[in-house]
Design brief:
The structure holds 2 protein chains of 2 kinds. Helix content of chain A is 37%, strand content 24%. Chain A is of the alpha+beta class. Chain A is elongated. Chain B is mainly alpha-helical. Chain B has one domain. Chain B is globular. The chains are: A alpha+beta, B mainly alpha.
């Protein structure tokens, strides 16, 4: 029978256990009601998930709106390792489908992370095959990939982007902050394995797409120019070559080619050397192409007239200090325009002396040498124009024949634009406009007229002289264009020998000119670095100029000079 | 007291219903992910509930004296099953512990049976030997030997939570059954070094103690589970985030449908929901203790006390663990946590309590007939009526 002590002791047990339960209720009240805010904060710290929403990168189009760089949607695969049931099997399937090393995938599966990339930027139709396999723990993300429909076309100018859509070279780098856009984000929640809980999306900020870049480049002219330069590369097998086509009035760059080049779609596989934008980053001694600029300076200063005659020393002229100047062919007495057309070094040296060092320096500076052109591309160099204080007694002889100073192709084209547009220095322009997706202009790059270098009268005279270069008597006869008068100049510069002096086998051959000579539509420069077997600018560069120029005139539908002359005759009658 | 039996039944049913809802809420996503079937755990639990209704009815209808007479056989059976768990071909191992026997898709946990077997055995032994209970050799040693044997067999599975449950309930029965308090105190003091050795000897148990003392020291490691439980309860607030809306069940709180289901109740239903569950448990235990205290037969008294103490002890430990009041011990919340064996046996236990309650009526009817004179005096009914001298 149950005694009092039994009941008493049972009662103690009951009181103890029920008391403990009561204490727990009080504890729960503290945890849940009094400390609620603290734990809500803790919960949201671990559950909050901010998903970045990538913007679409802006396009790059040519002056006619043709795509040069676009972004296409692609899928990127990632894994949540904890959810992958059979890593061996899944890795095998993925390795085959996505062309990734199986061992690399397995290694990533073994990481203690909630997110590992498997492979990024897969074409949508290929990706959907893998998605259809419904592999547990394998997911995809929408990303975009940069595609350059032209392949190698304009590669150096466009540059390329990295895996995270960031600009790494060329315009992609320089205008990254416009092209990039602004990423949006979504505030949501995640489970402990890092997956988004779809029902608890809270807040979303839409991404802002990047802006589009409208270039001054014309893809058609660019294509023609690239084909020409490729031909030069094939024919003369040079180290490198550059070609620039510019509108002299606006400074618009119509074509911009460098060789060697590369396919920007596969930029990561190329060397830095190939990626270099040589027309901006490489400098050379301009050689004879500088002569018309010197002569125009001399005419402007009134120290010579086109008809003035100079004795050209029969091809050999000692200037003191053991230095002897040579001409390619021995000449007697030449008029100034003949010195230009026949490219006499000795004649130029004499003109330079008459102009004087101070004037030489001033004009070279006015033509823009020794400072950057400010074109919208990264990596430009300024070339070299020594300050007067560093000039030697021989400098006034050397500078007029394009030695003792270095220029970039872009600088040379800009200087010639001044000759072509009536004497004003323009700023080279690569970007015409920056517009948003709806076509609203965000930024317009207006032509900047810069300082006048020489007068219109001087321009008319020097253009006459330069026409002679492309005549049957001149060095640039190969550059003549049917139906159009061409003003130009050849250049054949010996390269400075690292051992001292000038090399007799390594040349920079060039031709620069504009047409139609009296109302120019385009300035074209062809520079060929170290051509093999041939080295005269008239032989190496001038034919490329000729072919490109005649195609360009047809494309731009420029009225030929002869028809123009006939029209004038008709109106005169 | 038939009313008490029904109240016991309905309160239990309420807790089971809460359990079923919360098992579905906490396990659906896990089950979907693991088995491709969101109802996997709910379906299993429903089968166990059906089986539990049967055992509850058996417990209610079979006179409790039967369990006392059969207690030795039940004890032997559960000992055999505990040994069976140790046999690799029969025992089912989960996470380094051998606790289950697998029979045709259903797993059975012999340690749950061992709890009841121990209660039955001790109740029988103590009630039939009241004259020798004060003796050290005859009253103290034999039950302690049996209790110790069961405890050791469960401890080597290992399952420290169940071990502590059986040990504590065993000690309660010895204490109430009249064993000298000094013996029990001495035993407790002697077993303290052993307990210390057990905890300090196993790295995970030591880590759990450290996590209990300062969970925030290593929130990603040993403190992870308890912090996740805190966050679940705390973010629930007064009214909860809403049924089914728990975030913590999304794999933050591992296996949230078993030992930590109470945290998710707190998160989804808030303090008010948790309070409802606590009140239901409180009411259930008050009913149970009332029946026990009214039972004049010592066998029934001890058997009932053992059952109610076991349920209350497990409830307190489970809630203590999820609220960080006690170090982490794997003990399910009775009637609510997912788990078949414990549900079926706890329902049987409720059945036995109902049987006790029903028997009180029979005796009162008999008493009232025999002593009408006393009732005429219309003494007010007292909660804990003192035994009348016969």
């Amino acid at each position: 029978m149950v005694k009092f002590t039994h009941k008493f002791r049972s009662l103690l047990v009951a009181i103890f256990l029920l008391g403990a339960l009561t204490i727990l209720v009080i504890r729960l009240f503290f945890l849940q009601v009094l400390w609620h805010d603290f734990f809500v904060e803790k919960a949201s710290q671990q559950q909050r998930l901010t998903i970045p929403l990538p913007p679409k990168r802006g396009k790059i189009v040519d002056c006619q709106g043709r795509d040069l760089a676009i972004s296409v949607p692609v899928k990127s695969f990632y894994a949540v390792p904890a959810q992958v049931k059979d890593p061996e099997k899944v890795a095998k399937v993925l390795a085959k489908a996505l062309n990734v090393d199986r061992k690399i995938i397995l290694k990533r599966f073994s990481k203690e992370k909630h997110f590992v990339w498997i492979k990024r930027k897969i074409e949508p139709d290929k990706a959907s095959e893998v998605i259809a396999l419904k592999l547990p723990g394998i997911y995809t993300l929408e990303e975009s990939r940069r595609v350059y429909p032209g392949g190698k076309l304009l590669g150096h100018v466009l540059g390329f982007t990295g895996l995270d859509d960031q600009g790494l070279e060329g315009l992609e780098l320089k205008f990254d902050r416009y092209l990039r856009g602004k990423p949006g984000w979504r505030l949501t929640e995640k489970d402990a394995t890092g997956r988004e809980v779809l029902t608890s999306r809270r807040f979303e900020v839409e991404p802002q797409d990047g802006l589009d870049l409208i270039l001054t480049i014309d893809a058609t002219i660019q294509t023609l120019a690239e084909a020409q330069l490729d031909k030069v590369m094939e024919q003369f097998n040079p180290q490198s070559a550059s070609l620039v086509v510019m509108n002299p009035k606006s400074g618009d760059i119509l074509a911009f080619v460098n060789r060697p080049s590369y396919d920007v779609n596969q930029a990561s596989k190329t060397s830095l050397d190939v990626r270099r934008d040589r027309a901006l980053t490489d400098f050379f001694e301009p050689g004879s192409t500088l002569k018309p600029l010197i002569v125009s300076a001399a005419l402007e200063e009134g120290v010579v007239k086109l008809s003035d005659r100079f004795y050209c020393e029969k091809g050999s002229f000692s200037i003191g200090g053991g230095h002897v100047l040579h001409d390619a062919h021995p000449y007697g007495t030449l008029a100034v325009h003949e010195i230009v057309s026949k490219s006499s070094n000795i004649g130029m040296a004499k003109i330079g002396c008459r102009l004087g060092a101070k004037n030489l320096y001033n004009y070279m500076s006015k033509f823009g040498f020794g400072r950057m052109t400010g074109v919208d591309l990264p990596g430009e160099v300024s070339g070299l124009l020594h300050p007067l204080s560093k000039w030697s007694k021989l400098s006034p002889y050397m500078i007029p024949m394009g030695q003792e100073m270095t220029v970039t192709a872009m600088q040379l084209v800009r200087a010639y634009c001044a000759l072509a547009n009536g004497g004003v220095l323009v700023k080279p322009r690569l970007i015409r406009k920056i517009v948003d997706r709806d076509g609203n202009v965000i930024l317009e790059n207006l032509t900047e007229k810069q300082d006048r270098v020489i007068s219109r009268e001087t321009v008319d005279q020097i253009v006459e002289a330069m026409k002679g270069v492309v005549s049957s008597q001149g060095t640039g006869y190969n550059a003549r264009v049917d139906g159009y008068s061409v003003a130009g100049k050849t250049g054949t510069a010996q390269k400075a020998d690292p051992a001292g002096g000038y090399s007799h086998s390594k040349f920079v051959s060039s031709f620069i000119g504009f047409l139609p000579a009296d109302h120019p539509e385009a300035v074209i420069l062809v520079v060929v670095n170290e051509p093999q077997h041939f080295h005269y600018g008239g032989t190496v560069a001038a034919p490329a100029f000729q072919e490109l120029a005649s195609a360009l005139m047809r494309y731009l539908e420029v009225v030929p000079d002869r028809m123009l002359a006939r029209e004038e005759e008709n109106t005169n009658q | 007291m038939q009313k008490t039996a029904y109240l016991l039944f309905y309160t239990t049913l309420f807790l089971i219903a809460v359990g079923l809802v919360m098992i579905y809420s906490t396990s659906a996503i896990l089950a979907q992910e693991r088995f491709g079937d969101a109802l996997f755990f709910l379906r299993k639990e429903l089968l166990w509930v059906a089986f539990g209704v049967v055992t509850l009815y058996v417990g209610y209808r079979v006179p409790y004296e039967f369990w006392g007479s059969a207690s030795l056989w039940i004890l032997i059976l559960s000992a055999i099953l505990l040994v069976g768990v140790m046999v690799p071909s029969v025992g089912h191992q989960v996470g380094g512990a051998r606790r289950w026997l697998k029979v045709g898709g259903f797993s059975f946990q012999p340690s749950e049976l061992a709890k009841y077997a121990t209660i039955f055995f001790l109740a029988k032994r103590l009630s039939s030997g009241q004259n020798r209970v004060k003796s050290f050799v005859h009253g103290f040693l034999p039950p302690i030997a049996v209790l110790g044997l069961m405890v050791v067999m469960i401890l080597i599975q290992p399952d420290l939570g169940t071990t502590l449950g059986i040990g504590t309930v065993g000690m309660i029965l010895l204490f109430v059954g009249g064993v000298r308090f000094t013996y029990l105190l001495g035993l407790t003091l002697i077993s303290l070094p052993a307990l210390y050795y057990l905890i300090a000897g196993a790295a995970y148990r030591r880590a759990r103690i450290l996590a209990f003392l300062d969970p925030w020291k290593d929130p990603k490691g040993v403190g992870f589970q308890i912090i996740q439980s805190f966050i679940a309860l705390g973010s629930g607030g007064l009214t909860g985030v809403g049924l089914g809306e728990s975030r913590q069940k999304l794999f933050y709180l591992p296996e949230a449908h078993t030992d930590f289901i109470f945290s998710i109740i707190g998160e989804e239903l808030g303090f008010l929901g948790v309070l409802m569950v606590c009140l239901a448990f409180f009411f259930l235990f008050v009913l149970g203790f009332r029946v026990v205290l009214k039972t004049e037969d010592l066998l029934g008294h001890l058997m009932g006390l053992g059952i109610v103490s076991l349920l209350a002890f497990q409830t307190v430990i489970n809630m203590g663990v999820v609220t960080g009041t006690l170090p982490t011990k794997g003990l399910p919340l009775p009637f609510i946590s997912f788990g078949g064996t414990s549900l079926v046996l706890n329902m049987a236990g409720i059945g036995i309590l109902m049987n006790l309650a029903g028997r009180l009526d029979q005796r009162r009817n008999r008493d009232s007939r025999e002593s009408l004179r006393v009732r005429v005096k219309a003494k007010p009914r007292r909660l804990f009526a003192r035994r009348r001298k016969t």
